[in-house]
Amino acid sequence: MYILMLSIHGLIRGHDLELGRDADTGGQTKYVVDLARALGERADVSRVDLVTRRVVDPAVSPDYADPIEVLSEKTRILRLDAGPEGYLPKEQLWDHLDAFVDNLTAFLHDQGQWPDLIHSHYADAGYVGARLANLIGVPLVHTGHSLGRDKRQRLLAAGLDSDQIDARYNMLRRIDAEETTLATAELVITSTHNEIEEQYGLYDYYLPERMRVIPPGTDLKQFHPPAADDPLPPFAEVVERFLDEPDKPLILALSRADHRKNIVALVEAYAESPRLRELANLLIIAGNRDDIRDLDEGARTVLTDILITIDAHDLYGQVALPKHHTADEVADIYRLVARSGGVFINPALTEPFGLTLLEAAATGLPLVATENGGPVDIIGNCQNGLLVDPLDRTAIAEALLTILEDRETWQTYSKNGLAGVRRFYSWPAHAETYRAQVGPLTERHEQIPGTPPMRRSLVYRDRALFTDLDQSLLGDPEGVEQFVAMMKRNKRCANFGIVTGRRLDSVLIELKRHGIPVPDVLITSLGTEIHYSGQLVLDDYWVDHVDHLWSPRAVRRALAEIPGLVPQRKIEQSRFKISYHYDPTIAPSVEEISTLLRTRELSVNVIHAFGQFLDIVPIRASKGQAVRYVTHRFGIPLENVLVVGGSGADEDMMRGNTLAVVVANRHHEELSQLADLDRIYFAEQAHAKGILEAIEHYDFFRSCRVPESESTPAAAPEPEPSV
């Protein structure tokens, strides 16, 4: 099995992970690297590629600019370009994800091997994984790590208004991407049962039968108890300089400086318990910093509040707050605390899983942890600590004292944790369960074909132009005549395609009426059917491909009584397209209609165009997906493809690496969000003349040439088809 893992944001490398550097370099980055390594060690896995975004930025390590990093014989990290070179927070990546999909598809095409399975991590990777899986027909597995609806609820509870949340975190796009991912994924892997019930249960596409709990593993070679004769690690000196009585047991909190981690409440709980202050010191590892003033707002606020609380309660000499630590020192820090007879605490308001809990337990530390989220499963399985209400400071202090004051309790929890981690949370055990769960998914996969089902001469053309029909190509007879002449002059190096919502028979009538020869490719019914050449050869693979999860009767039943939706004429309907006239003054919003279909467990694409048309097509079908599939079969880079459109139905065709044009008469508000993208040209002329304007703008036929291969007898056994 060849497994392709996607983790797009954050700084990912195989060594010295910068955990806690910012909000995007948390436990997820370690999880995906460890999982990739564990799967790569299995005999029944041939290759694991962990794909992330390439970052070229003087503010970060040059490691993140390396296109390929080898982790082991069968495992590597691949870094692909997407958007600007510099490091971006995940909230700013959304407009660049379509290019990431296109770059990844091109990489896989060039290497000549497609994965058997895609596993996406977090919402942005889910967006990429869903589009790639729907394009090439590979099963998608998804791990959310954290979910937008849950985060949105927590932010609302914290006092932020919805508009502020959506603007700062791009939350609406994130949640929409998560819904699409859940509609596409054949398996969702979570770390805990709590995650399924409390987070995924908020989604319209919540399907419990697709959920599997597979707890992540721990590297038991790195995280192990201290030996009696081990020398003190160098980090001990860093801690001791903060403390008046460094021989006391240590209470360790290790996390990012994030308000959700609730570190300030821990400091207050410690300060308010004289017995706890007498018995133990507090060690807080909250990321790395040179100057608090240089940190982002969230981390700066948290660390400032910690320092203010220390000062307010005069905790100097009792609290250690080191400024720096490396990833390699983390295991030593746990062992230092275990050697002192201390405790590890995670007081977060909610914790999706809690990798640090496993690491601490693997070194023999008892645990105190939040009762909200993953720690419930971890402590339930291992019986190695106490759960607390993170809002109850008295309960936090009492739980810590329960363990610290009774050596027998400490020893019991320590031994239970060591045994429990080895039993439930080792990486070999995780990889074994993972492989057993995903194996059946790949049995139904059919490889994407490599060449079109027709004579190969068309394959040798090195570029292609695809245009929508109505109001894009058509509308100006003089412009159509000039356009057809242009394409005929360049037909030896360029394929020509029509991409339309019309049915095939309707398209042929319009082409004949306007004197347009049958093109090389006809993509009809909103990307659900593909025909090639003047002989109209049907792409049978694509028909089977888009039929995935398609239930037209169920769709019609779900929408039958919706006001403001009137079925279009039969000539506008097809096997894979259900079309309605949409009256926005009467009908529910498109978002509400999408939600209704999702709650009926219907995996579909809902396409809204010009404010008055609504089409439902299979989840794998769209104009953009069909264009990318065809160009793959032709072997044409998307950078050599010009697409023409102008409505919401065309958006996914125009995003990404294609060249695109919106002709003047179709500068529709549905595409206004694309105005700032570099590869989309808004023409000044209308209809076909606008396309000709774009051809000149892009110098699209520059160096138009015919490779020698086309002149060979085998490549051109019959005359060229008409344009």
What do these coordinates show?
It catalyses: beta-D-fructose 6-phosphate + UDP-alpha-D-glucose = sucrose 6(F)-phosphate + UDP + H(+). Keywords: Glycosyltransferase, Hydrolase, Transferase. Residues 26-217 form the Glycosyltransferase subfamily 4-like N-terminal domain. Residues 245-417 form the Glycosyl transferase family domain. The model is unreliable at 707-723 (pLDDT under 50). By secondary structure, the chain is an alpha/beta fold. The strands form 4 sheets. Strands 3-4-2-1-5-6-7-8 form an 8-stranded mixed β-sheet, sandwiched between helices. It has an 8-stranded mixed β-sheet with strand order 19-18-17-16-15-24-25-26, with helices on both faces. A hairpin with a 3-residue loop joins strand 22 and strand 23 (613-618). The chain contains 26 helices and 26 strands. 48% of the residues are buried. The protein has 4 domains: 2-213, Glycogen Phosphorylase B (Rossmann fold, 3-Layer(aba) Sandwich), CATH 3.40.50; 234-420, Glycogen Phosphorylase B (Rossmann fold, 3-Layer(aba) Sandwich); 460-548 and 621-705, HAD superfamily/HAD-like (Rossmann fold, 3-Layer(aba) Sandwich); 550-619, Hypothetical Protein Ta0175, Chain: A, domain 2.
